[in-house]
Design goal:
The protein contains 5 helices and 10 strands, in the order ααβββββαβββββαα. The protein has 248 residues and is an alpha+beta fold. It folds into 2 domains: 9-54 and 177-227; 59-174, no CATH class. It has a 4-stranded antiparallel β-sheet with strand order 1-10-3-4, with no helix packed on it. A 4-stranded mixed β-sheet has the order 2-8-7-5. A two-stranded parallel sheet has the order 6-9. Helix 2 (33-50) crosses helix 4 (193-208) and helix 4 packs antiparallel against helix 5. The longest helix has 18 residues, at 33-50. It is elongated and about 65 Å long. The termini are far apart.
């Protein structure tokens, strides 16, 4: 017996079918236009709630910030309502930045060579304690402020004329995209589709089928934990035994 020969189910699973599956799980097979609007709103709220549950590796990205002499702060604004970037002092192709994960000071950036120096992410208290924040030099520390509408990165020392010809290379996490039109697919990888539908069913049950809430919540949490455990990037782990010399 032949197989389909394809594995693109998650890429051809439109939002209206996700809503249909979620409503069927709460025993509702005849839905109105308002039900579709209600489901899309619940899905968007749930995707926002996912941001509080841990790091989602499919939303990681990287970019370079061109440093400017004497400019310590660089601002990433949230995406505008039409989906275009509203960035002013950071790369114009970057939007929806939630947090900065890692950053290095990069010099000699070419197609064949580069040199990275590690930078330390510091807290508000540490940055506040710096006596002269306008000191110029090669940045080796950065402070991240997360606001409702923007993320601001502040470097210390402030880039001098030498550093201004170089970049700060950063890894950052983005927001999960909104659901949008009913014909769209959702901005999640295939392994999160089961828990997404279970979660949407749980959210809808709170509004339409309260008697299903407890069972659907348990199913949702179980499937989400499995997906979250699988998500990520594997790396080697090294265990070094501790040597103990008892006193004599």
């Amino acid at each position: 017996m032949a197989t389909s020969g394809t594995n693109v189910f998650e890429n051809t699973f439109p939002i209206d079918e996700i809503f249909e599956e979620a409503y069927e799980r709460v025993g509702m097979r005849e839905v109105t236009g308002y039900h579709l609007t209600s489901a899309r709103r619940s899905l968007n709220i749930m995707l926002q709630e996912w941001a509080n549950r841990g790091l989602h590796y499919w939303e990681l990205s990287e970019t370079n910030i061109d440093l400017v002499e004497g400019q310590a702060e660089y601002t990433f604004f949230r995406a505008t309502t039409d989906g275009t970037s509203a960035v002013t002092t950071a790369p114009a192709d970057v939007y929806g930045v939630e947090d900065i994960l890692e950053m290095t000071f990069r010099s000699d950036r070419t197609s064949t060579s580069q040199t990275d120096s590690s930078m330390t992410k510091i807290s508000r208290s540490t940055y506040s304690a710096i006596s002269n924040k306008l000191t110029k030099g090669t940045p080796n520390q950065y402070y991240v402020q997360r606001f409702s509408e923007k993320v601001v990165v502040t470097f210390y020392p402030t880039p001098d004329s030498t550093a201004a010809s170089k970049d700060a290379h950063m890894y950052f996490v983005k927001r999960i995209q909104d659901a949008g039109a009913y014909t769209n697919t959702v901005d999640v990888p295939y392994r999160f589709v089961p828990c997404m539908i279970s979660g949407l069913s749980y959210y809808l049950s709170q509004k339409y089928k309260p008697e299903f809430v407890q069972n659907l919540k348990m199913l949702y949490e179980d499937e989400f934990q499995r997906a979250l455990t699988e998500d990520g990037s594997s790396s080697s782990t090294f265990l070094t035994p501790q040597t103990y010399y008892p006193g004599t």
